[in-house]
Write the structure tokens for this entry.
Amino acid sequence: MANVRTTNRSIDPIWEQVQEEAHQAIVDEPLLGGLVHSSLLHHATFERALSYRLALKLSSGEMSEQLIAEIANAAYARNPALGLAARADLAAVYDRDPACHRLMQPLLYFKGFQAVQAHRVANALWREGRADLAYFIQMRTSEMFGIDIHPGATIGQGIMIDHAHSIVIGETAVVGDNVSMLHSVTLGGTGKEDDDRHPKIGDGVLIGAGAHVLGNISIGQCCRIAAGSVVLEDVPPMKTVAGVPAKIVGEAGCSQPSISMDQLLSGSMIE
């Protein structure tokens, strides 16, 4: 058994840690044994567990758990990058969210993580030309999690969406790697145009709660967008913007705002 566990850890340390946490969770709270077994311990791989969890959440009278699980499993098999991105997202939530104390928590309980993974499956289907099935997953994700991400939107890896309520991300939006955002963020358009009309968010950006970034504009890498801001113009890298409409109020304050999660503005910025 020791050799098997060592081999698993060398192949997939994220999944190995999740399984260890799951065993301990059952010891700590036996009433959750059925949930933990069916969602985590019953599955041989991280991707299988994720497919099961998404199917459980997104199924309805219109489409069964079994069918959604099969769709997700096939997407993961065709696109190994989906599973790698999900692991990066899981690590990001664990590292950046002070309410997350175990890797298994986002898999079981955090709608921000789950919604992003549902979007990744929908986006894979969208890129394969299966638009109606992608729209169905978008619809169910919005209904279940209160998060509306168009299946055409491009989302990087290492994404952390804290609380995650009322997130809206439009069709032509691009979100880079290692981005963090809080609830009620909108990455939207400014009218009825039908072309490239949504924001492009650079790597390492931190977007505060209730911020709205509108139009085909670029937010440079490692910027901070203060809570409640409305951003309508391009922002160069490593800046902090705030206000309605948002203006540059200073430097980003650190090299990795999305990881430090520091949302406080200094006195000079507020003045």
